[in-house]
Structure formats: structure tokens, C-alpha cells
Amino acid sequence: MSKGFVSGLMTGICYLALQSGAYSQEQTEPQELGPIVVTASRSEQSLDEVTRSVAVVESEQIERSVADSVTEVLRDVPGIKIIDSKVAGMKRISIRGEESSRNVVLVDGQEISDHTSYGAVFLISPSDIERVEVVKGPGSVLHGSKAIGGVVNIITKKGADRAVQVEVGTAFDSSTDGITGFSSAAGTVDQWDYRFSASKSKHGDRETADGTLEGSAFENQSVTAYVGYTGEQHKFSIKAERFEQESEVYTDPASIGSTMRHFDMDLPKRDRSKVGLFYDFTDVNESIAKIQLDGYVQQIDRVALVDYELAPSGAVMKRKNKTESKLLTFGLNGQIDLTLFDNVLTSIGFQAVQDQLDKDSFSTGTNTFGIPGPVFPVNITERDEAKLTTLSAFLQNEWDLNDDLTLTAGGRYYFVTSENKGTAGDRDESDQAFVGALGVNYTGFENFALRAHVSQGYVYPTLLQSTLGSVFSPAGKIYGNADLDPETSVTAEIGARYDGGNLIVDASAFYTDAKDYITSVNCDAAVHGSKCTANSDIYVNIDAAKTWGLELAASYQFAELAVTPYANITLMRRQFSSGATNTFDTDTPLVSGRLGVMKSWAFDNGVEAYADLYSRFSSEHRQKSSSGIDEEDGFATLNLAGGFSYDFDEKRTLKMQAAVENIFDQDYKPSVEELTAPGRAFKLSASVIF
Fold this sequence. Notes:
The chain is mainly β. It is built from seven helices and 37 strands.
């Protein structure tokens, strides 16, 4: 499919939309109540009632984005930054400056486990997602460990409003010549609902304004199956998922260094398989409003290949490294909502999660000392088995002090054990902790809600950090450290939400103080003893971080024109401290966001259309590294999106979306930790529901 065809189709869609004078418009009344969310308090609430800062991305926004990953849809949420660590197909997110490993990623309330030092990858197809809820700030009380930055809960699509509904669709991205296909069959019959879906996506190397990024291709495929039963009080469901991902790794020639003759890395496998069970029992009696139970078994398989040649002074080192790992997770969650007293909701719950990680590392090659000189073969094999068990229980009370004022307080107790058998020796460690949270919400003003919240965060070291260490690399091995302390944080925020129908504004101010950050440093025998070897690294607690900022999401609908200007803006500062050293060079821009205007139409013939003209922008990024300061200039791009849907009848619908991004073909990097952005790119998606 040519770029010219996509460009022409995009122009046609927007032209159709702009000819609004030829058709009558039907305006819908603006809604005065925010969407219902469940992640912030583990129970259904309107956005106007929560005490936390929450962002919601609906399925319509996901469809309109024509995104290859749900992370791209979250890019414009205030406080969110995308991280791909030079791997185009494995995007993660940072929330309020916190790295991905310090955020919890949930699918239907169940965690995607990850024990790398990078954090969880969103191993799910965008076509399977109903909506995404992002809770910013520590969520350790209600959603477990690894939630210093926040919680991302992906709620997937379930049944349909009729017995059989089929959808097929495709998408195209000119920046990678990427093609995606997806399909689903869903429905509801009596009290049963079901959904079966499949998708496949393949993307080539990325085209930027400065040329092709060799080694940035990726592909994935997925299948899911869901069946549920809903009775008067009982609801059962089961869901099976399989997602397969493989990605090449881009290596910037300028970053290799003078002693590196060759470096190549490939990630041929990052697969997730899962079976989850869910049960809800509602309106049990006058004292028990709801009982929830869910359990799951999940397996994530990873393979990493590294091939390099290093030529330090007087020597040549050639290596082919391979790491295979299997992470098997068993999880069980339970919650009871009690109404023992008037105007008081008490939630009591527990979580039991066990991660079992098996890792095999192989390194083969040669060492040559002197040119010419003797050649020594290298053949190293390591096998590690590790287990992390987390048991926790939480209690939260929500008091309606009057019609306008709600107070929420809760706490969670953790007991964590880790076990390791392998190259680092047999180690058994344990830890326990208590974290708390307190929030208040006031809705006494018309269309206006005020909120305030204070919460603690807690992240126990991953198995790689505490025991196994990281894969072989040109820098040597990064050793695990059983003496690591958990990372902790305290966050305070205040916020306000105004929903007057036409005007919607949500603003937050926050401050986070996080301690005992885990990072890696060069091994020093005088400090670390026998924990690691010379010319290698080791994980240690070294950094503390303070982050503060403002987040704003605002929109205003001119109802008669159906025109909506909007703004999503983040102002943020982040400071790292290590001993007497303090730096603001933390890859955190002072200002970033998206400004745009959207126009929508509803025509007499059943066509609904929209056009969205917007700018995405950021000030400069600076990050301190061992080699100095890495810096990326600020940027602002102009982008245009549009689309329409047409209802043939009550059962058949055609949807088309198109976009041209980075219209002026700018050469820029969104952040230090991301690949160079695509140049001018045309995107198109189409689907039919029948």
C-alpha cells in the first residue's frame, strides 16, 4: 500500500468531514458525570468521587490512535512518558518520572510480572482493550508492590449486546511498512457472554527523518478466549490469553565506543501465556455488599541473543551469548466489601503471588591476548532457579462524613520471601513492611470536586536484582545483591476536577520523595568483597529521588459548532541524590504535552466523523550517565487525524481512521531512553462490525 494512497485517503476523509454545511448536524448533550472507574479504590466510582489522580483512555481513543501498542495511546496522558530502551516493539511507560519497573501493569486486575531491570512490557493487542485506567502515584496499598509510580489497569473487551457480533480489521503504518490484522467474535446469549479474538502485526525497520534505523523491526501475534456467566448475584468467567512478541534491537553506532568492533542483539522471544478465573458475588446480605475472588497462572518466556567483538588494548574478545528464561506466576486475589455501618464502606482483601524464575545463560567465544597471540576458548554455562513469594493483606475504610465529604484511609501488610539456587549460591531472604494511604474528596461545589491524598510506596527488589543478576554483556555481568533494601516512597498530592458539561478541567499538584533506589555500579572489592568479580557490576541501593510537578487536562466543547479545543500539559522536575551529588539531569523535561482542537459531525445518513489537529511537544531532555550528560533537544510536531463510522443498519458498522504524524518531517528523539521518532508517517485503519 503506497504512501500516496494513504495520504489521498486521509485528505478525502478530512475533506468529507469539513463539508459540514451540506449536511445537518445532530448534537449530543454533554455528559456532566465523569466515567466510572474501578482501579483507584477497587470499587466502582465516578471520576468526580475519587481521591486519586486518575486518567481514563476509552476504546474509541484507542481505535482513533491507530497505535501499534497501547503505550502510544497513553503517551499524551499528563505525567506519562514512553520508554522503549532502544527496542521498538517493547514499549513501557514511566509515570511521574518513575522507571517502568516501579509501576504495576494489570490486565483485568491481574499483574503482568516482570523481573528484569526494565519493567513490564504491555504484552497485549490494542484491539482487545476496552479501556485503560491509570492511577498516578503510589498504589501499593490496594494493588501490591511495584507501584511507587502508579498503576495501569487494562480492562479487556468481553461480550457484545447481541448473540453474535463479528469484527474484522486491518491497519497500516508507513513509517515501518507495518501491517496489522485483527478479528473477533463476541456475543451474549441469555446469561452467558463470550469473546474470541486474534491479531497479527509485522513492522519493518523504522524510517526517520534522518534515515532508516537498522535493527528496529518487530512483530507480534495474539489469541484470546473468554467465556462468562452472569446471574442475579453471581458472576463467573474464565479467560485464556497467548501473546507472542519478537523484536530486533537497534544499536547506535555512535554509542558502541572505540573498543567495540561489532555488536548485535536480538530478542526473538517475549511470549506471555495466561489463564485467569474470576468470581463476583454481589448483594450477599445487608452487611456484605460484594465478594470478589480471582486467580491466574501466567508464564512469560524470554530469549536474548548477544553477539559482539571487543578489542581493548592488546586483546580481542569475541562472544556469542544466549539467555533463556521462564517466569511462571501463580496469583490469587480476594476482596470483601462490607457495609457494617451507615455511610461506611469497608474493604478487606488479600493477595498471594509466587513468581518462579528459571534462567539459563550461555557464553561461547574466544579471548586473544596480543596481536598475534594465543587464542583461548571461552565456554560458560550458568543455570539459576529463583522464587519470590509475596503474601499481603489490606484494609480500607471509606467514610461518607456528609453528602459532600468523603474520607478514605487504608493500609497493607507485606511479607515477602525470596529463594535462589544457582551460580550465586543458595540464598533465602525475607522482608516485611506496612504501607498506608489517606485521602479526602469534597464535592460541595456545583460541578466541582476537590481531592487530596497521601500514600506510601513499596517495591521489593526483583529476582535479578537480589539474586540472579543480569545477562552477559560487553560490560560483563551485573551481579545480584541479597543485601538490597526495598525501595520506598511517600507521595502527597492535591487535585481538582470541574465537569460543567462543556468545560472539563482536571488538575493535580504532587510531590514524591523516594528512597533506596536500586542501580548498578562497578564492582569494588574493598566495598563489595566476594559478592562480585573484577570488571563487572553489582546492584546496590544508591539513589534517592524527589519529584514534583503539575498536571493539567482540559477541554471545552463549543456545542453549536461541535468543536473542542483541548490541552494535556505536564510541568515536572525530578532530582536524583547520591551522597553529596544532586542532579536534575534525569531525562525529565520541564514541560511536555499535547495541544489540539477536534471537530466532530453527525450526518443525517448515519455517518459520524471527526478531525483532530494537534501538536505534541516537549522541552529538552538531559540525563546524567557514566560518560557525561546525554541531551536531546526539545521538539514540537504538528499532526492531523481523522475518521468516520457508518452504520449500515443496527448490526453492521464500518469504521475508518487515518492520520499523518510529524507533518514537517522533524528529526527528533522524544526522550533520551527512546529511539529516534518516525519521520512523516501515514497511518490507516479500517474495520467492519457485522
